[in-house]
């Protein structure tokens, strides 16, 4: 109800009497539910009323609200100082208010949705079936599926639609032509997509089973790099900059502790649901890559941080995701990049400079801390959900003290 934002009877009558009057109260409730600040709601309601007056003077209704009409209104508000514009003081915020009001009307079928032309050609049927199979049977995430689809489509375009005619020589020639002058990271992504597509074709019986062996590997030493992680002092500084009563700081601290204490991935945090938290047993269920589920113990410090966040978390009935945005409109986090951005900003505030800051640094930190406290590699692998012990052993190289104890003297005379 707009009575929460306006008290003058004259203003209330004006807002409810114009063409937007029938929808203004519902729009106010929607803005409040989405977490907009009081001042922002006031500006957006004025913009919605102003839009209605603008349409009425041109003998139009909300059914005529299209992109051209919105552009005309934006030009109008730059020079308008009528009563509906509140003396021109809301001109800067009016376009954003109109955008939200238009979305509100579209959701209720009161104005047409904009026609979005998709210039991208449709994917071939084989590519669509390929990505659908990997999503259904392997639980591959949408970003990875798009990457698979690009590589598989490039193969079809270069080698022909008849996959039964593909040969190892043709596949190698395609890869060599595609990666000439390219970056090693892009090359590795293409190789991964090619192998996934060739395995799928072999599974269907549409191609030779040995075609995957024709895809060479990028020359590199597996797990040769040093895992980036924080020291205990650096982690303390990161947690310190996340202290505070602001909703964003409360949320960020809970996310950082889940990453740094339990070794969760950014995607695990994004998809964490309220039903995954078992407060009676003190555990948390995590669904990771390939829909692999594991239940981990919820440490006291982590549980208290999550509980504190849930006490301040906005109520969004449409979702049971634990972590939401702190800027209106309040909604679940969209991707892992949102979590990594939170971590990167915390690093910046703490004065920590890392080449590639992100959520995975805290996962590495969790592993190295467990190793320093005497946790065995197989138990670290269980917590981090590694499929290979080699991946867990990757963190052993940071335990310099233990490595010195097992290192053998170099043979030969000392100079």
Task: Explain this structure.
This protein is mostly helical and 415 residues long. It has 3 domains: 106 residues, no CATH class; 90 residues, DNA polymerase, domain 1 (Orthogonal Bundle); 172 residues, Intergrase catalytic core (hpI Integrase, Chain A, Orthogonal Bundle), CATH 1.10.443. 54% of the residues lie in helices and 3% in strands. The chain has a 3-stranded antiparallel beta sheet with strand order 1-2-3, with no helix packed on it. It starts with 8 loop residues before the first helix and ends in a 9-residue tail after the last helix.
The DSSP helix count reads: 18
Please bin the fraction of helical residues.
40-55%
Number of distinct beta strands: 3
CATH architectural name of the largest domain: Orthogonal Bundle
The CATH topology of the largest domain, please? hpI Integrase, Chain A
| Annotated CATH homologous superfamily of the largest domain | Intergrase catalytic core
At the first level of CATH, the class of the largest domain is Mainly Alpha
Give the strand order of the largest sheet, numbering strands 1, 2, ... along the chain.
1-2-3
Total domains:
3
- What's the Cα radius of gyration? 28 Å
Name the overall outline: globular
Biggest sheet record? 3 strands, antiparallel
Average predicted confidence as pLDDT: 82
Strand content: under 5%
Oligomer: single chain
Structural class: mainly alpha
Helix-strand topology string: HHHHHHHHHHHHEEEHHHHHH
Low-confidence stretches: none
- Report, as a whole number of angstroms, the end-to-end distance: 86 Å
